[in-house]
Amino acid sequence: MITEITTLHLQAGVDLRSPESSEEGKAIHDGLSRKVREEGACFAYYGQSIEEPRTAFTVVGLGPGNAQKKHVSGSLANNEVDQSPADSSSSSSPALLENTEKPPATVTTRVVRVNFHPNPDPSPALGNNHHPNLGVTEVVFLHFPAHLPNKADIMKSIDKMRPVVARSSEALSLFDEWSMEHGTNEADEKIQFYVNLLGWVDVEAHTRFQSSDDFKQNVHHLMGIQEIRLAEMHHVKFYEVK
After folding, report:
1. From edge to edge, which strands make up the β-sheet containing 2-9?
2. Tens digits of per-residue pLDDT, 62-73?
């Protein structure tokens, strides 16, 4: 199973907690529902950034039958498979909105596909049906150059943070992996992403973790990775579509 994570730029005022309250929210919800019911998606979640409410994410599990399909339309569909757009605005009509009569002004800004290991299904980090106490998901995209001859050394540094996270009783599920394709940033540099989905009890739990001695004594393992071009982090409350 492949996980497809799409970043969307919403119109001001859209609240995905109540998708029926806006044309845009309804189109996103209905498009994801169609993926599950008609296109065989294994799961589908949506949510928007607490820090940046105009930034939203959809997370869709693609089974063997649809993992090879391109799930974006318009200008995105014309990109090569290894050229997923990174941070530039693209189609104003993403595929999950294709069947609406008048697609609202949602803009797909990035599509990233990830094959998480060893468990390919990141749902435990997204929905509280797996962890009743899960209240928010930390969504992280670390931007790296596409060519990384020292990737093994980078992974050694990242791996040193895993037990630190595991020691926090308020960190509930961690899924992280490299993106399957490369993208292009605003400087027209080919990049790849290290994607991190981490479930927390709430935003305050994450803040407490960052203030802990354990974190402070080990965060240098990440901060010392010189190849990171950009680190994006959002807290997102995800909702499952069935």
Report:
1. 107-114, 2-9, 55-62, 43-48, 239-240
2. 987 665 554 432
